[in-house]
Amino acid sequence: MQSSAIAWEQVSKHYAGTTAVDDVTLSIAPGSFVALVGASGSGKSTLLKMVNRLVEPSAGRVTIDGADVAAGPAPALRRRIGYVFQNIGLFPHLSVAENIAIGPRLASDPPADVGGLLERVELPRALATRMPAELSGGQRQRVGLARALAPGAKLLLLDEAFGALDPVTRDALGQRLRGLHDELGLTTVLVTHDMAEALLLATRVVVMAAGRVVADETPAALLHGAGGPEAQALVGVPRAQAERLAGMTV
Ligand SMILES: Nc1ncnc2c1ncn2[C@@H]1O[C@H](COP(=O)(O)OP(=O)(O)OP(=O)(O)O)[C@@H](O)[C@H]1O
């Protein structure tokens, strides 16, 4: 049997009056790039946050490389996992370089290669001395990505990481992310509202609805009509847009 980088085993999360995640069993192979898509409130973020224990499951367990994430202290777990979310929350009083280097510094690990990381996320090395307020939104997200990679994490979780960016920046950063995934041999889980982004970047697309996994397909299979009605409704949005654009005359 193939080992799992991440596995959710019969995982549920209940809040008063809401079941955010409902008995999900899902396994992600090392090296895969999985997009988690689904309507707002379908449970994507909750499922993701159970991996780095920002949310604790009500039932079931989550494992990384076969080990229960609940077994050790959460800070040690989080150091092994890169996490990027919308409006990344760089420390405003620290420079770009200090933001990128903070993980290894707090863990007393060898210092981060700030220049090399800036290059990996396609930012000029000269930006190292800037403060976060002196960056564009896209540059800030790139610094966030560099910070997430600084501790040498092989697991990268992204929660609507590109949500607040303009479409051109979003597309470029998505492609860079896929490049980094391939170059560094990462296992990547990307929560996104955008099915086109999921289809273009991921090796596997998991669709959630009402706390459950309702489809789990490759992009090619989804584009060939697999996955059921919820998945196809999401695939239909970018497809219909592309058809409308193709049909426009100038
Ligand atoms: N801390 C919380 N307390 C109560 N309910 C919560 C909490 N966090 C999430 N929920 C509820 O759980 C459900 C799933 O939320 P979740 O954020 O996982 O969905 P999502 O698919 O990521 O949504 P979105 O795409 O809008 O970010 C929603 O109904 C949400 O209101």
Automatic annotation (TrEMBL):
PROSITE patterns documented for this protein: ABC_TRANSPORTER_1 (PS00211), ABC_TRANSPORTER_2 (PS50893)
Annotated ABC transporter domain residues: 6-235
MF GO annotations: ATP binding
Domain of life of the organism encoding this protein: Bacteria
Assigned keywords, A-Z: ATP-binding, Nucleotide-binding, Transport
Statement: the UniProt record of this protein carries the keyword ATP-binding: yes
UniProt keyword annotation of Nucleotide-binding present: yes
Gene3D superfamilies xref list: P-loop containing nucleotide triphosphate hydrolases
PANTHER family the UniProt entry points to: SPERMIDINE/PUTRESCINE IMPORT ATP-BINDING PROTEIN POTA (PTHR42781), SPERMIDINE_PUTRESCINE IMPORT ATP-BINDING PROTEIN POTA (PTHR42781:SF4)
Protein name: ATP-binding cassette domain-containing protein
Organism: Sphingomonas mollis
